[in-house]
Amino acid sequence: MLAASSSNPGGQRRSPFSMLTHNRQNRPYDVWLVSLFAVHVIIFAFVVWGTAMTTPYLDMLTWQHEALEALRVNDGANWLHHFLLPHNEHRIAFERALTLVDLEIGGGHQIAFIAASLLSVLVIAGLLWRTLSEGASNRERLLALLVPMLILSSTSALDIGVPINCVYPISLVFSVAAIVLFARAVTAQQNVAPLFAGAILCALLSPFSNMTGLGIWPVLLWLGWQAKAKPSILAVILSLAVIETSLYLWHDSTAPAVHSGAHGIAALERMIAYAGIFLGLPFSRLAALALPAMVFGLCLGLVALAVLVNDCLRRKTATRASLVSTGLILIGLGVALMASLGRLNENVELIAPARYALYVVLLHAGLIMRALVWLRSRPCYVGQSDLKTATGLAVLLVLFQMASGLAGIRAASDLRAVVLSWQPGMEDARYVKLIFPELSYAVKVHQEVKDFLSTR
Q1: In sequence order, what are the residues at sequence separation of 6 or more whose Cβ sits closer than 8 angstroms to the Cβ of residue 200?
Q2: How would residue 272 be classed by pLDDT, with cut points 50, 70 and 90?
Q3: Which has the least CB within 10 A, 103, 250, 365, 400?
Q4: What is the pTM of this model?
């Protein structure tokens, strides 16, 4: 476990500023890393502020309409139906709850969604940094700042500022929490029952923001096998996975239309291409970088697969940090596979929306975590090469944060301008695309919300 390499044998709690107290020779890199981290976080905050959308559109209008219907009926059976009612193929209980909070308290301005998404991303970043920092030296804790820098990126900020994307960070915070708690449980020596219970609870809750949360179950099974957990634990996880998945997928929503899809080699080629595009996010969103980004994404996927295969072949004793890194890699690859299977339709253009980039960011974080864990085990772990490399990576992350943040703010500004410019009676194609396919429905919901708020 990480405690084996601890430079803090007394287990005393340390201030984050203690990272700056080791070797004077390394002090310039210490200051640079901490300063770059601070700049990165400040830019992140500006991007969240600059992309914030406070006017509902598309699915958010449906959420508001259904919330108002539930408030009108207001009985126990209806509330249960409301929270568990499928939205497309997803069950979005958390979003339905946030819609109620936003209408009751927030005046329908979507602030509840932005706050919940922001909290989710901050918790993910904190959990991962703490996992790497437990029992670590000051130098190791400093290097670990690269992981929250990855999580607190402009790509994450877009999922925060645009409330309709809140389904991803809210689902992922439960998945990451489940992984962290499970890793703690299987590496702890005592008091493991509460940790297992917490991991199971988080895993159960993860799909109720987005269906991709169901992918946490095979991840926990993999981690349990890797950590040589008791067969009874694996049996419990498998049983709960089958039960929740079966109940989750059993619903009365209209089945999607069936289209002719690719078959055979064509289907495999299409899956591989889309997996590369997905794993190449956010760069694959740029037309000029689409092909190199797809190649980069495929290479990234091969590296991740090589890490997993190496784990299977060597079966070394897993540490807490290595288990968490494996879980993040599995989430990234698993969602890429799910997305690729969903794009087998030949009529669907091979484009990965930028809102999916948060899953790829977790894959990046998992690989960086694994690299840091490997670095700690090297006998030549001395000198300044690691700090120099980390500082270089931090500089690149800040530069990317600035460029992508500016692009994100511009895109959000354009979207906001269209949404705010729409008025009842306007039938332009861009409004049909961005406001709602049936603009009469949007008019109806806006009036319903206005009438409801006028009675508050």
Answers
A1: 178, 236, 237, 240
A2: confident
A3: 250
A4: 0.89
Distance of CA 353 to the CA centre of its chain: 14
Q: How far apart are CA 181 and CA 231, in angstroms?
A: 18
Residue 104 burial by Cβ neighbours in a 10 Å radius (0-12, 13-18, 19+):
middle
What amino acid is encoded at 80 in this protein?
L
- Dist CA 63 CA 67 (whole Å): 6
> To the nearest 5 percent, what fractions of the chain are helix, strand and coil?
75, 0, 25
Q: Distance between CA atoms of 274 and 152, rounded to whole angstroms? A: 25
Question: What backbone torsions phi and psi does residue 261 show, to the nearest 5 degrees?
Answer: -115, 175
Rg over alpha carbons for the chain, rounded to the nearest Å, is 23
DSSP string, 200-266: HHHHHHGGGT-GGGGGHHHHHHHHHHHTT--HHHHHHHHHHHHHHHHHHH---SPPPPP--B--HHH
Looking at residue 345, the DSSP 8-state letter turns out to be B
Three-state DSSP class for 358? helix
DSSP secondary structure code for residue 412 in this structure: H
Mean pLDDT is highest, among 105-114, 171-180, 250-259, 274-283, for 171-180
Cα–Cα distance for residue pair 432/428, rounded to 1 Å: 7
Higher pLDDT, 235 or 290: 235
Quick check: 37 and 142 in contact, CB under 8 A?
Answer: no
Q: Which residue has 């894959």 as its token pair?
A: 363
Q: What is the DSSP letter of 164?
A: G
| Residue 395 one-letter amino acid | V
Please tell me the distance from the alpha carbon of residue 289 to that of residue 287, in angstroms, as a whole number: 5
CA distance 270 to 385: 41
Query: Which tens digits make up the pLDDT trace of 179-196?
Result: 999 999 998 877 888 999
SS3 at position 86: strand
Q: Is the pLDDT score of 243 beyond 80?
A: yes
pLDDT at 17 over 60: no
What is the pLDDT, as a whole number, of residue 255? 47
CA 149-143-119 angle, to 5 degrees, is 30
For 214-225, letters b (16+ CB in 10 Å) and e give: bbbbebbbbbbe
* 304, 367 Cβ separation under 8 angstroms: yes
Sequence-distant (6+) residues with CB within 8 A of 206 are 171, 172, 174, 175, 178, 213, 214, 216
Dihedral sign of CA atoms 59, 62, 68, 74 in order: negative
